[in-house]
Amino acid sequence: MSIKEEGNFMVNYWLIRAAEYGKLWPIWKEEKLISVGWDIGDLSDLNEDEIFRRVDNNPTFKQKTPYILKILEQFIGYNNRNEKMQEGDIAIIFGPSCIYGIGKIGEYVYRKDGISEEIKHTYCRKIDYFDIKPFNLNSLDKKYRQSGKFYFQLRPTMIQYNISDNDFKELLNDISKIEYSLPKGMEKFHLESLLEDFLVATWDNIEEFKNLQIYKSDKGRIGKQYPTKTGLIDILCIDKKNNDFVVFELKKDKPTDGVIGQIKRYMGWVKEELAKDGQNVRGIIIAAVNDDKLKYALKTITDVKLMTYSINFQLKQH
């Protein structure tokens, strides 16, 4: 995709955070969009004073009125006080020390029901994403991590990235040189509690999951922390080859007996409530180690498999 100036239109570049731990990235990528929350209704027919009144009078926004107004002004572009997002601009989607995706921004859309049953973001921009895999910033030259024009400021929800078209072409060229396996900064996450976010955010790039697609219900709920009558399924998937349901249970610090009982309950619920005639359900437990209790318990359970992961955390003195 070429980036160029057309007439009086100058391309702007935006850094946009995909929420905490990148949890919005899977649905943004699937739906080909970006989104923000703070819904105060469709702004199409509202003047600036009414927008301010709605934001200022919303008790859930507390003291964030100036910040929220600035984001809405930039994202939707209903006045000319702040630099505003336009069709043809470039969005760089980031998470904790990594870049998930880059794409060309399209039209603004208001989705009154949110982008999914779980995520009630109503203000959206369509995105034509480039064919780029997520990567850790440590994979790039240090100029992107140091003060200067290339520096990625990854803290706000959304900020303009003040680079030129030539700078952006240089960034794309640097990205093309990355030898990709898995994002280093994400496979070495520092807490087991981030395991689920890591898996969902980088799902399409994990070789072992290439035939599995994260489930999405008819109502738009995605298969992360999927609710059942017996609890929340960590991750629920569909096997693209045979249409089986696949239930993932992350062991973390759970006792072996507990995790096996839990995944079997979830599999039973999926079989009863979601699966159609002839559609099978199988389970995958993800654990740090294959301990003896887990190994022997799974010997007689043919529809549940085990995958293990490792965390590599190092401190270096300089």
Oligomer: single chain
Structural class: alpha+beta
Amino-to-carboxy terminus distance: 42 Å
Number of domains: 2
Taken in chain order, the helices and strands follow as EHEHHEEEEEHHHEEEEHEHE
Q: Count of DSSP helices? A: 8
Explain what the structure shows:
The chain is of the alpha+beta class. The chain is built from eight helices and 13 strands. β12, α8 (292-298) and β13 (304-308) form a beta-alpha-beta unit. The longest helix has 18 residues, at 256-273. Mean pLDDT is 81; it is low at 1-9 and 181-193.
Concise overview:
It contains eight helices and 13 strands.
Layout of helices and strands, plus pairs?
Blueprint: E1 13-17, H1 25-31, E2 33-36, H2 48-56, H3 65-76, E3 90-95, E4 98-110, E5 123-129, E6 135-136, E7 158-160, H4 165-176, H5 184-187, H6 195-201, E8 212-214, E9 224-228, E10 231-239, E11 245-250, H7 256-273, E12 281-287, H8 292-298, E13 304-308
Parallel strand pairs: 1-3, 11-12, 12-13
Antiparallel strand pairs: 1-7, 2-5, 3-4, 4-5, 4-6, 8-10, 9-10, 10-11
